[in-house]
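Researcher: Quick sanity check before group meeting.
Model: Go ahead. Protein one:
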Amino acid sequence: MANAVHSQYKNLRFTHLSTADGLSRSHVTCSSQDARGFMWFGTSNGLNRYDGYDFSIYTYHQNDPYSISHNYISSICQDADGKMWVGTSDGLNVYDHAMHHFETFKHSDEHPGSISDDQIEAIIQDRRGRLWIGTRNGGVDRYDSETGQFIHYQHEDGRSGISGNDVRVLFEDSGNRLWLGHWNGGIDIYEEQTDTFVPLFEDQRLTQSGIMDMAELDSCLWIGTQSDGLYKIDLRDLRLSAVTHYRQSGENSLASNSVLSLMPDKDGHLWIGTENGGLDVLDVNRNVFYHNQVDPFDPGGLDSQFCLFNLQGSVG
């Protein structure tokens, strides 16, 4: 580790949006910006669309088949056609901008081509246009838009090769490789030729902690975990011996071993959202951590030590 220690990064200033501004719940779980410029925020009590002035809130209504299927929003993904896919604790939804309503996909034991599980954890569209859905209990699904069916990749099927059925992270790197991160600490890579997943390390998990997020920066894959800090994997050398592990161990280190979210910027910094440690920024080239934590006397600073962001794209 480098010897230099910096407490703040460029005197960051934050604009706060809260329930006082119309947000449905202060517990924000995910976010995305669509092609129209609207910001979408998933919360534990509904989906919010923000136009820069006001919030439109979408919540579940029992007697409305076109409402969103559940109020806990776990993931948001805009596809290449501009459709907003929304994962919830009870079903996958796609928003129809023209009709202003949702179509819902749910599991059915009577229909093998239905989604494998209703608890959605992650959604991504890869560069080939395929939509992948990570679930809590059913592995990962790939949606076939032509048939409206879901193709299942599960731990028990003896074919797909995935490390477990609780898939929390989906990530595609610059080499078009699709990565899965599991709650059990396993990591898998999709093999295009065989249409299967293979574990990153054949006989060993990266960690015993849940995988929370992934990001690519400086030819490396960065992996945040629920309680075991941050890992760096050189994408040119996928051996376990080449892995670098960052943990809370002093001033020039992570502020917390619970890494919730990761975002690279164009200047070679990795933004790290933590639980109970605020926001860290890692200068990858200098190997220096900057810490940004709550200051109750600074109205433009962080207002919580719990920092989660997963806005599609990159900072700066």
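Researcher: Fine. The other one?
Model: Protein two, sequence then structure:
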Amino acid sequence: MGLVTSTFISCGLSMDTFVFGLKPVYNKLIHLKESFIVALFQTTLFFLGATIGKELIPYIEDWDHWIILLGLSWFGIKSIKEQGSNQGSFATKWKFILLCLLVSLDTLAIGFSLISILPLGYNFLLILFLISFISFYFI
């Protein structure tokens, strides 16, 4: 896997963060802070998936997809109900952190599987950097 493949993988993983870019920006400093936090979540969960994934898979493989489905469905329905409000930033920091976590769970899952197929000696830091940079850019 070269730079092009790593870039495409990182773009695919970072597409979920585009949901954060859909809200209006009223304060650039808050927007930059939120962008940084989302990129940090994406990178951290990918790293966790890559490092502890092999030990965790037997415990969570039967129900992990249901948690992601229910969490994102709940958040989507809640967001549709709140669509009329004019809040530029997220209502609470917990709502923001929950969305960061839910959006980054697929990155955790890819970290589980991708690390097992990477060739030995592959530049793992390249993928981490690309995920961080592209996630930050998409927002």
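Researcher: One line on it for the slide.
Model: The two ends are 26 Å apart (CA to CA).
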